[in-house]
Predict the structure of Protein kinase domain-containing protein.
Amino acid sequence: MAARTLHSLSTSPLFLLLLLSALSPPTKAQQPYVNNHQLACENRDFDNITNGFTCNGPRSCRSYLTFWSLPPYNTPNSIATLLNASAAEIQTLNNLTSLTTTIPTRRLVVIPTTCSCSGGGGFYQHNATYRLSGERQETYFSIANDTYQALSTCQAMMSQNPYGERNLTAGLNLLVPLRCACPTANQTAAGFRYLLTYLVAQGDSVSAIAEMFRSSTPAVSSGNELTSDNIYFFTPLLVPLRTEPTRIVITPPSPTPPVATPPQSPPVDPQGGSSSSHKWIYIGVGIGAGLLLLISILSLYFCYYKRSSKTASLIEQNKLTDSSTKRSLPTTSTNQWSIALSNSSDTTSGLKSAIESLTLYRFSDLQSATLNFSEENKIKGSVYKATINGDDAAVKVIKGDVSSSEISLLKKLNHSNIIRLSGFCIREGASYLVYEYSENGSVSDWLHSSNKKKSLTWRQRVEICRDIAEALDYLHNYVTPPHIHKNLESNNVLLDSNFKAKISNFGVARILDEGDLDLQLTRHVEGTQGYLAPEYVENGVITPKLDVFAFGVVVLELLSGKEAVTTVDKEEKEEMLLCREINNVLGGENVREKLKEFMDSSLGDEYPLELAFTMAQLAKSCVAPDINSRPSIAQVLTTLLMIVSSSIDWEPSHDLLHDSGSLGN
């Protein structure tokens, strides 16, 4: 009876259709979004996602990858070598002049590749080969997410390489399966000929990505099986394309409309009307000369009037000068507070050019705002909390005249991660700088104070690191001319009410002019022990890498909760530098246990060990004794953005401390 039933089923058209469907490849299925599952290297519950995109279309096709240009992978040749692609095609597609053209940092580069089904895994991939140099400690996690910018995953690399995590030694060649895919039957029917693997950037949305590549939001959503617009920075997203992509250009802000030029006169007919055209030329010249004369008269009148007004204003100001000073700058308006200057004429001339956009405060008003600089209002040292027009502010008292160059720098800086100077006052040899108020004090307060507040969470720590890197990147690469902070330490990183980090204390900041070739020398070495790079201490060398070194120390403080310098033996006065301790932590055997011991105990188990390891590696590279071994702040920022994105999705319940094997024991 059972055999008869089975026979009848096997001959049923419905059964045959179901059997055929089960045996056939899923030609109409789309590709699931990786959704940050790549973070847990030993979690194999999502192998169907983390190992690659399923082969559900043609066995091979033309596809495209995207890659953020970063040294040393910032030329067509170097990127092609890393990704096993054609340098000539990269040059042509991205409109570059040569194979060795340096591509600006963090520009998105489109990479043409051939995408094929893997031999036994049933996944699409484009294979690259990576050779371990041995210059730094690398893992499958760091290679996939850092070097290859999440174009691969540690799970895919572990599946396709015969070496264990603890057996990754210098000289080994690793297979790196890069994530790509071919269009499904549904996508082809809809007119999509190619799939591009796009690395999601901070602030991206599905609709913005679709618009960037002239695709459609539904096509991107269905192509990645997205059920919401929730996508993560630095994760790959497939973008269906109808035509081959071109160089990605980020649209800059609209420039100021140019001044309209009058329409050109119609060309003069050389055949006839010659005398008439000459007549109009003479009339035009006459009108122009008349207008020029009128403008000259008005200019002379304006200059005379302005000089008379200025003289009258100065006479009036002498009546308003504070009795304790001999000089005064003009008050800007009845609502603004005035400034009292010292007797130095050099100070006056230097400051006049620096204070144009700053509020000038009366000393008496600052006294009132700080309750006469009372102990109750003291924040730390010589910094006092003030209430000005109902708003909180911080007043820093400096004995002596403040540097006009510092004021000039702070006045022109415009970045959310740099403390804002709003005004100042100078009186009787002391300077009073008024800054925006940072409700949560300094990073040092949270890490090292004897009466420290609640512990910073893992996510807060990585976001603070990102904020500092954003500020330094702005100083090094976007301010003209570039500047070096030169005094970065946890005490100079302030936190606002939302724990956004802001760099402060620019008193010793140094300008790098174009002729300096990013390097200066000084005989006057200053700063805090533990944060100073060796080339600066030994030879007075000043480069942007000086800030990178100090940044690495701050990252280590945030990871460990330790100070930059700790006393090991009080009797012998032996001290341990945090920048050296990290070498012991990440070197030799039992890295996992040593790193867990190194981490701030106040974090408990509330952090992902894989990401902590990546952060520690990043910090170690920043504090490398050799200046040439340190990354640029732009490289640092790119890695940090990936870590922040990954940390946003991590939860304590997804504890990588215990289930991850990407770290050797």
Remarks:
- The chain has a mean pLDDT of 77.
- The first helix runs from residue 2 to 10.
- DSSP finds 23 helices and 23 strands in the chain.
